[in-house]
Amino acid sequence: MRKVEIRPGVTMAYEDDWFGAPWTVPETVVMVHGNSESARAWTCWVPHLAGRYRVIRLDLPGFGASSEPSGYGWSAPELAADIGRFLDALGIAKCHLIGAKYGGSACMQLAGEQPGRLLSLCLFGSPVRGSGSGNADTIRAKGVRQWASETMRSRLGSTASEAQMRWWADELMGKTNPRAAFGASAARIDMELEAKLERITAPTLIVTTQESGLQSVAAVERYARRIPDARVLVLPGDSYHIAAVEPELCARHALAFMAQASAGEVTRAAE
Length: 271
Prior knowledge:
Radius of gyration: 17 Å
Number of domains: 1
Number of strands: 8
Order of helices and strands: EEEHEHEHEHHHHEHEHH
Shape: globular
Strand order of the largest sheet: 1-2-4-3-5-6-7-8
CATH superfamily: Alpha/Beta hydrolase fold, catalytic domain
Helix content: 25-40%
CATH topology: Rossmann fold
Structural class: alpha/beta
CATH class: Alpha Beta
CATH architecture: 3-Layer(aba) Sandwich
Number of helices: 10
């Protein structure tokens, strides 16, 4: 992976893919993973996106190959600030931003604080409010891998194969820095982003599932109404990490939305 220093002593790792003609300059898509993940969570998306866009998949601070800042708390504002510094370090003035789960929450924070940087915002299973201390308590008591394993079926849903469940628990989430996993889970407990949503000016696609265990469709639609230019897409299924379960389908919807946003064709009503 490539690495860049975003502030003194803090480096962020990232993957940078562009499969199109090397003499062209495409728009950039930046992808932000959820808690206890890394850039690897987006691997299956890359073949679908990288023929049209430069695709940058980052490791958030403390996750994957990125360094762990001293005294870091992994709150949405901290993560958003460092995503902004990452964009600055790579010289990215504007981008399409895609986030999943808690990574999407940090993306919402950034979109509200630096609205001029985004061409569009796509969110997959991303909450705006905390959901209690259960995850943090389990990580502290049992460790990251056991927590990931015990919660994987609700995360990936009833259609996920045993092989996919094992890979996510053992090879991805289970190898996460324990302090980062616990810190992000603890930071989410009191998270409250709803008051900030009206400052998001980028065209926003919010994707959820019919039976997500993270938040109801009604709750998603309620917070989406606070974003000036947002549409909600409800997909079949019972996974709350739909970006991992249906990467091709989600990428197809993201591609169509980003193209419409760049062309100025996105409207709130989604005619």
